[in-house]
Write a structure and sequence with these properties.
The structure holds 2 protein chains of 2 kinds. Chain A has one domain. Helices cover about 20% and strands about 40% of the residues of chain A. Chain A contains 3 helices and 10 strands, in the order αββααββββββββ. Chain A has helices at about 1-10, 40-50, 60-70, and strands spanning about 20-30, 30-40, 80-85, 90, 95-105, 105-115, 120-125, 130-140, 145-150, 155-160. Chain A has a 5-stranded mixed beta sheet with strand order 5-6-2-1-8, covered by helices on one side. A 5-stranded antiparallel beta sheet of chain A has the order 4-3-7-10-9, with no helix packed on it. The longest helix of chain A has 11 residues, at about 1-10. Chain A is elongated, with a radius of gyration of 16 Å. The model of chain A is unreliable at about 5-15 (pLDDT under 50). By secondary structure, chain B is mostly helical. Chain B has one domain. Chain B is elongated and about 65 Å long. Chain B starts with a helix and ends with a helix. Classes of the chains: A alpha+beta, B mainly alpha. The interface between A and B is medium-sized, with 29 and 36 residues.
Chain lengths: ~160, ~240
């Protein structure tokens, strides 16, 4: 149901102008998923201008916290733009080990969600408001997966 | 399905242009080549064209307005360009203020400004919808009543209702240029982007004036009247949706 609402939401979105273009990499393990979100270079530069206050082209601990507080944790109201569905049940999403750093001038957010697909499951990354466009770059999985992706979101069917 | 593909394509183009502009600025920093200035300004123009292609409140407002009120192509063209100019000026001025005075709280202030501008824009849109409803009802009850043609003042109000919300695309490019120290290039890119957006917006405006004229000429009176109310309802609904 939530996937349906998100897809409909995307179709009805009044703004097809994503602010952030995020390249995503997933690693699906037996009991967790490791997510990597890499922001586009242009926006990384803008974000670093704001959050890298000592101008060392890195995010130190305080800068990282400020950045995550402004651009990651507020996504909680939208389930962190994730859908984890086991069977017909939506799973609770609680990101762990959240880190932000800079790689090749691009800001990267890394985090883990606990998830054991003991039955056929769906894993999606989608922002119904289109504020961020997520592109799946790479996925590694210990389970069989089927991928459905567009230029702004993606879903994986995971079969244990 | 078609819409999904169309939306995906627009977003893919925006991503490519975003990447091309970033690369061009890096090349400019490395070589200081004059040709790169031209390339960046041209890329910003294409970005404007594509940026305005996607669904947005501006095209919806302008198309609904001309569907209900009607106008000639020149007026539609003028309204569309005026909207994109205000959209760009709004972005330019807000970016300059954020860059100069709020360097470490840009995100927070941008969100705050954007939310409030959207609310202001929503109020204008609701007022325009009510004005169009008044004119339509008056026309029905009083056969002698002829709606006034859109003058410069009306067009300005229409353009203000759309353009007051700062364009995030323009803001990103201008801020990016400013950070790298290319102030003039940032402004030139914003102007170029505004031209691109103006062209796309004017297509929406002209199409809707042509639709209205074609319905009037063919005397599909009932369909024409229905479309007028649909246009007003769309405008009103859009205003309320943004406001809440």
């Amino acid at each position: 149901m939530r996937i349906f609402l998100l897809v409909v939401g995307t179709h009805l979105a009044l703004w097809a102008h994503p602010h952030f273009f995020i390249d995503t990499t997933l690693r699906i393990e037996s009991d967790r998923i490791v997510h990597e979100w890499m922001f586009d270079t242009l926006n990384s530069k803008l974000l670093l201008f704001e959050f890298d206050t000592n101008h060392d082209h890195l995010l130190d601990e305080r800068e990282e916290k400020n950045f995550l507080d402004a651009h990651f944790y507020p996504l909680q109201s939208n389930h962190f733009n994730l859908v984890l569905q086991k069977g017909d049940q939506d799973e609770r999403i609680e990101p762990l080990h959240v880190k932000a750093n800079v790689v090749d001038k691009r800001i990267v957010i890394l985090f883990t969600t606990l998830f054991s697909p003991t039955q056929p499951s769906i894993v999606c990354t989608i922002d119904g408001t289109l504020y961020s466009a997520y592109t799946l770059q790479n996925v590694q999985s210990v389970f069989a997966i089927e991928t459905q992706k567009s230029n702004y979101d993606f879903c994986l069917g995971v079969t244990p | 399905m078609f819409y999904h593909t169309f939306l995906g394509q627009i977003i893919a183009w925006q991503k490519e242009i975003n990447f091309a502009i970033t690369e061009a600025f890096e090349a400019l920093e490395a070589t200081q080549s004059g040709a790169m200035y031209g390339y960046i300004i041209l890329s910003a123009f294409v970005y404007g064209l594509v940026h305005a292609l996607g669904p947005g409140h501006g095209k919806m407002v302008i198309a609904s307005y001309f569907l209900v009120h009607g106008a000639n192509i020149r007026v539609a063209f003028k309204a569309a360009f005026l909207s994109s100019i205000i959209h760009t000026l709004s972005a330019l001025s807000i970016t300059a203020i954020l860059y100069l005075f709020f360097q470490h709280t840009i995100t927070k202030h941008f969100q705050l400004i954007n939310e409030n501008m959207y609310k202001l824009s929503a109020c204008f849109i609701i007022l325009i919808a009510l004005f169009l409803l008044y004119e339509t009802l008056k026309e029905r009850t009083d056969s002698k009543h002829i709606p006034l043609p859109s003058n410069d003042k009306t067009l300005f109000k229409l353009a203000l209702s759309i353009g007051i919300v700062p364009c995030p695309g323009v803001m990103s490019i201008v801020l990016f240029s400013m950070i790298l120290g290319y102030y003039t290039l940032g402004v030139a890119s914003a102007v170029s982007m505004s031209l691109g957006m103006g062209i796309t917006m004017s297509i929406a405006a002209i199409l809707s004036t042509q639709l209205k004229q074609s319905l009037q000429i063919r005397r599909y009176e009932t369909l024409f009247q229905t479309l007028r109310y649909v246009g007003i309802a769309l405008l009103f609904g859009l205003g309320v949706a943004i406001l809440i």
